[in-house]
Amino acid sequence: MKLSRREFLKCSGAGIAATTLAGLGQEHHLAGSGEPLKVHYTREVSTVCAYCSCGCGLIAHVRGGEVVNLEGDPDHPVNEGALCSKGSSLLNLRYMADRNGRLGHNPNRLTRVLYRAPRSSQWEEKTWDWAIARIAQKVRETRDASFERVDAKGVTVNRTRAIAHLGSAAINNEENYLMVKLQRALGLIYLDHHARLCHSSTVAGLANTFGRGAMTNHYIDYRNADVIMAIGANTAEMHPMSMRWIDHARRKRGAKLIAVDPRVTRTAAVADIYAPLRPGTDIAFLGGFIRYALEKELYHADYVRMYTNASYLVNPDYSFQDGMFSGASTVNGKFTYDKATWSYQTDAEGNVLKDETLQHPNCVFQLMKRHYDRYNVGTVCSITGTPQEVYLKAAETFCRTGAAGKAGTILYSMGVTQHTYGAQNCRVIGVLQLLLGNMGLAGGGVNAQRGESNVQGSTDQALLYHILPGYLPMIQAGSHPTLAAYHATTPKSGYWTNRPKFLNSLLKAWWGDSAQPENDFCYDYLPKLDGRDYSHMAIFEAMYRREIRGMFLWGQNPVVAGPNSRKIRQALSRLDWVAAIDIFETESATFWKAPDIDPSAVETEVFLLPAAVSYEKPGTIANSGRWIQWRYQAVPPLGDAKDDLWIADRLYKAIRAEYQKGGVFPDPILQLNWNYDVPGGEGPSVDKVAQEMNGYYTATGALVPNFTQLADNGSTACGNWIYSGYYNNLELPACKKRIAEKAGIGLHPDWAFAWPLNRRILYNRCSSDETGRPWCPDRPVVWWQNETWQRSDVPDFGWLSATGQPVTPEASSRRPFIMLPELQGRFFSAPMADGPFPEHYEPAESPIRNILSSTQVNPAAVIYLSEMSKLAEVASPDFPYVATSYRLTEHWQSGIMTRNSPWLNELMPNLFVEISPTLAERIGVENGEPVLVSSIRGEIKAVACVTPRVKPLLVGGKELEIVGMPWHWGYAGMSRGDVTNDLTPQAGDANTAIPEYKAFLCNIRRVS
Amino acid sequence: MKATTLIDVTRCTGCRGCQVSCKQWNQLPAETTRFRGTYENPPALSPITWTRVLFRERVHRGKVEWFFAKTQCMHCTDASCITVCPTGAAHRTPEGTVKVDPNRCIGCNYCVANCPFEVPRYDPTRNAVRKCTFCYDRITNGLKPACVQTCPTGALQFGDRQEMVRLAQRRVEELKAAGRTEARIYGLDEVAGTAVFYVLAEEPAVYGLVQDPQVPLTATLWGIIFKPVRVLAVAGAVVAGLLARRQQAEDQGQERGGDL
Q1: Under a CB-based contact definition with an 8 Å cutoff, are residues A285 and A261 in contact?
Q2: HSE-up of A995 (CA within 13 Å, CB side)?
């Protein structure tokens, strides 16, 4: 039997096939001479793009141990063979073409272990054995000198605050998982990564609205939408493949695209409606939509009554006045809300009182109506600077999706998340989508477009100080001194009632046979928090104060990507040691080479370990739609580079060897369940790590089918409960499945695995009405027919009773949000730190006084005013313009991959700043001339891009100029430039401390 | 079939996957560029840059517009490069595309001087002219050109000429129905038809394309004076045949209709 490549891949489930001919989607046959093809007689290896979160598939053609071609996989449902400029350039991470058309290795790739001695101004080459042993020694010294066994109240805390870890969303799930396991076993609580900086506010905002903090639908599903609104998401540039499906919706459904952005971006250029807005005014913008939908009665009344908490009666003492919610207080000099009044009214049994007529003056619906009554078009447009006629057109177009039979989706990313009210920005999107009945629908949802290729996965693995894998809350010494106390805080309703099973199974996975019911499954081996912030900005503040002594920079580059990065460089130079692991030399690993640092004064020992790129190692990554896809290894890592799994494994073993000699509280390290070697293998087995994450029965070692089988008695072990099911058999794990859907609504259920339980559209009970009829019969998701549930997708609600009988539509109609204790979506959300309803505040640095209230800035925002960290005053005459930072199609994050990719540098060679022709005239600068951009924190040089795409906005009656800058550049790599984040403020969101990169004050002048 | 690429600029998002995938497949090195106040880069086609996307912006009736248009060799029917090439290095393939054979090219630069679209570029290190090959290796092995394969939105389509003309005509009708009165096909009538043609929503100059491409008089004269009459006759027959076929294709397209 002869199989084509496609058939072979489907039959075997493997991503590696031997080719006899090109096989790249043979659709056109020409009768020509047939030139030899360079991919003839190569091995084809399936991989997934290393850049954004679309999760596009690629085929690597391999001959003689080298990749000879890397292009889009025509069988892959997300991209169907297409790629953007970044995806097309992936070969550059290992190769460069020369003038003669030959591929040679990229000379900038790190291929040797490098070490920088104290006060040295250069690297020296070292061996892996030497470096790993030395790092392990440093870890032990630092940990042992700082280890806290108990806190002041005598609670066992077992933590160190002298070592920090950052990174990474750019590496595989299994690698991230091992990193979290290792660092938590060492007692680290300063643990964070990219997700803090890009979408931490999404998790807080969406989880407190719907129950989960992830993108609800997926990229292909955009094809099902009637209206697509991109706000704070330059989707054509940042997630180029999304435009494939938006284009599909526009051509096939006549869908409309609305782009809301301070500049005319490539998204705005192709949109049906472009609405400009001032950076940082999203709540005003969307709050006005809420008012518009309520006033014009465009909201989905039945949906709101059944699927949300609109009918809940709220504590009569709850109030909102002049920008402040009830309960404002100051504790230890820090503003906080006492949330006692942000509660529901209950009867004697504790049942929430409701009014499904939605008329009660204290029901959530009426409170919401009152709250947003102030957001009239005139006020809103005065705040946002949006011309009123454009605003009304956008509002009308989007709010029309409130009708049954229509689906509207909102795409957002960092324009929404990176604000001092970022989580509330995400919430206001959720509130609007609940109001319009767009959640759970095909073509609807809140699509938080995650950034990096695996930032969804790295968030799931909990490389974040405040959670454990699978979004289990991290342990707080105050409220969780013991395992029993932790479990006592388990929610009383909703699916989180199963939480003890997930935590106990996690402990069992980490400490194996040592974890027994008698010792609380080694609960005390985990470090405990003390209620304080240990996230990105807090890390560098503590480092600047010399409290942190050592750091892992694992695939993250904070010197370019962190806010107020001048201070970050200074903080790094105060460390004893830094262990950086990366594929190219980063600005952070070379902070001692920065223009403003004198290396002879820097005592820090720096290790730089060379890592593998995406197609040099196997493992999974999760795209923004939560699809966990297996990436195969095409070629071995270049030179001495090693994959991160190997590095984590060697590091653990070296640290364990250190502690076998003795040390402070070695038990969590020595007893850590760490056994990933396979006979004959050179390194750890990624499949073994995946199996641990999936979960297994401890008695037999057999893999659990999914998380419904997990138990709290030690009979199961599971490293990450939401990943349970992704690798539940050895023959064809779900994450390796590659069967594209032939007909349907584009869910592709047999392509990879989507957490949770392979659900592709979250909250899909809401896709049909009370009787189970789909709101949109032309694209049904889950619906009731013939006395049972018909399903395009895995139902995301309790659709089967304990006896396996289908639960009727009526019985399930008030329970669609299973991860919330209310089981209904929240317009009013009490867990938020800064108010149960999203309210507009001005950014920490603003050109105007708040028009809506006298409360200028989110009172609960996390703002650092310290040495080297300042904020400009409101309407500062020294910094009269509003600056915003952003990214480009052609570069990626801190630029460390793309600025070492010549094909991309050719397209976008330099840092530039976009300004309007009027501002250019004012400062006397011509297009293409150099300018200096300054904030109160620093000054950088860039090339002026004078363009009508940036237009001054009429804000509060005054013309306001906007200044836009990409932030991809730094002083390392092939393409170099100043660091935009030298200018950005250390002001963070009240709930997650995500920094406010997107709106700050600046000045600009020509280089004289 | 006659290989044809349709560039529908109204669906282009300016991601430039086409620019990089061209370099990737053809193993062309990157150029050293600088930011000149526009996203457009490199500034021109070159021996190592065979395609690029033009970025043009304007304020029109108070609205800011930003246009993206890919440029590359048009693979003309009345191809000046073939007409003027003294060695036959520039030649037409059986698929209707225009190729330059580097082994026969003597670097005389006549084609460079005579191309109405300024496409062929002289590479001094090779003493030869280089340009887009229409991914001849790919299209003769059942693959789409690298740029078409990589296009995320479908702004680039590859296929038989008849089908592409039909697609283009339907798209122009849609655009006109949506009020884009300047919508047109570019490359059907220009220089006797090109194997790469466009759907535009505005006139070509708005995108930075050659408004009214003409085969230069010098090329025509060269052909008349120096080329053997026999070659002219053959070329004429080919052109006439193509034109007839194009007309036929258009007629069929109008009759059949179909989905875009």
Answers
A1: no
A2: 24
The phi, psi pair for A306, rounded to 5°, reads -90, -40
In CATH, the number for domain B1-260 is: 3.30.70.20
CA distance A362 to A353: 11
A71: which strand partners?
A59
Q: Looking at the structure, do residues A73 and A134 belong to the same domain, yes or no? A: no
The residue among A2 and B204 whose pLDDT is bigger is B204
Model pLDDT, residue A29: 41
Query: What CATH number did the domain enclosing A53 receive?
Result: 2.20.25.90
Give yes or no for residue A156 having a pLDDT over 50: yes
What is the band of B224 on the pLDDT scale with cuts at 50, 70, 90?
confident
Chain A contacts of B150, Cβ < 8 Å?
A: 71-72, 81-84, 87-88
A328-331 and A57-63 strand pairing? unpaired
| H-type alpha helices, A147-262 | 173-186, 194-198, 200-207, 235-238, 242-253
- Residue in A89, A98, A928 closest to B36 by CB: A928
A668 and A522 part of one domain: yes
Contacts of A33 in chain B (CB under 8 A): 93-94, 140
Domain ranges, residue A951: 862-1006
Minimal-distance CA residue of chain A relative to B143: A26
B140: contact with A, CB 8 A cutoff: yes
Contacts of A82 in chain B (CB under 8 A): 17, 149-152
Interface residue B248 vs chain A (CB under 8 A): no
What is the least distance, in Å, from the CA of B125 to any CA of chain A? 9
**Is residue A875 in some structural domain?**
yes
Looking at the domain assignment, is residue A182 inside a domain?
yes
Give the closest-approach CA distance of A1007 to chain B in angstroms.
Answer: 16
Query: How many Cα neighbours within 13 Å face the side chain of A6?
Result: 12
Looking at this predicted complex, what is its ipTM?
A: 0.95
Q: At what angle do helices A644-660 and A173-186 cross, to 10 degrees?
A: 20
CA angle A814, A815, A820 (to 5 degrees): 125
Question: How close does chain B come to A693, measured CA to CA in Å?
Answer: 34
Confidence of residue A20 (pLDDT cuts 50, 70, 90): very low
Inter-chain Cβ pairs, chain A and chain B, closer than 8 A = 208
Same domain flag for A24 and A117 = no
Find the length of chain B. Answer: 260
Between residues 154 and 193 of chain B, which touch chain A (CB distance below 8 Å)? 154, 158-159
Q: Note which residues in 73-102 of chain B have CB less than 8 A from chain A.
A: 93-95
Q: Does B27 touch chain A (CB under 8 A)?
A: yes
B254–chain A Cβ distance below 8 A for any pair:
no
Rounded-to-integer distance, Cα A980 and Cα A911, Å: 9
Last residue of a domain, one of A722, A757, A772: A722
Q: Phi and psi of B139, rounded to 5°? A: -70, -20
Report the distance separating Cα A181 and Cα A184, nearest Å: 5
Spatial contact of A814 and A824, defined as CB atoms under 8 Å apart: yes
- Compare all CA atoms of chain B with the CA of A888 and give the residue at the minimum distance: B15
Return the C-alpha torsion angle B34, B36, B39, B45, nearest 10: -70
Q: Does residue B34 sit at the A interface (CB-CB below 8 Å)?
A: yes
CB contact under 8 A, B16 and A889: yes
Residue A547: its pLDDT value, please?
98
Give A522-537 as a DSSP string. Answer: GGGGS--B-SS--SHH
pTM for the predicted model, two decimal places: 0.95
Which among B13, B36, B137 has CB closest to A240? B13
Residue A139 placed within a domain? yes
Dig out the tokens for A778 from the structure: 């032309």
Q: Does the distance separating the beta carbons of B94 and A22 come in below 8 Å?
A: no
Peptide bond into A756 cis (omega under 30): yes
